[in-house]
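Researcher: Here's the sequence for the chain we discussed earlier.
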Amino acid sequence: MIMANIVVFCILAVVILGSAVLSVMTKRIMRAATFLLFVLFGVAGIYFLLDYTFLGAAQISIYAGGITMMYIFAINLVSKNTLQGLVERFKGTRVAGGILITLVGLATVVVVLLKNHFIDMSASMADTEVPMKTIGSALVGSEKYQYVLPFEFISVFLLACIIGGVMIARKEDKK
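Model: Thanks. This is the structure I predict for it:
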């Protein structure tokens, strides 16, 4: 049973990582949205593998269904003339800058992990199982260390970004 879980996890990890890389590297925006959909389905598969069925179902219905469809509708609202100018070539300075920013981000994550002893805590808590009620109350609660307000702010921010992108695209059509 454990070996089967490891095999399924490895398959899901390859699908998630491959789709994420393809989503970033593709030149066509609709393909990028499709690869993003595969990433979100893969994350839902990991939730199901961990027996967090509620989070897996929420991942599929909210993110894979709702957010991806919202991106696709926003892409379709933008004119084809605007999308045709989005093909860029990789320049050496931009690639070097991207690698530098990636390394700085990786170093930041490693420093935070080591400074706060997250690895030691996760090793000591490996045998304890967090009940679904605790996870659910943390996700939808508004108390300290609960996440409903950040989720709401992020959703409003994403909506504002999409509306701003559509407004910018429509202003270019009028010229």
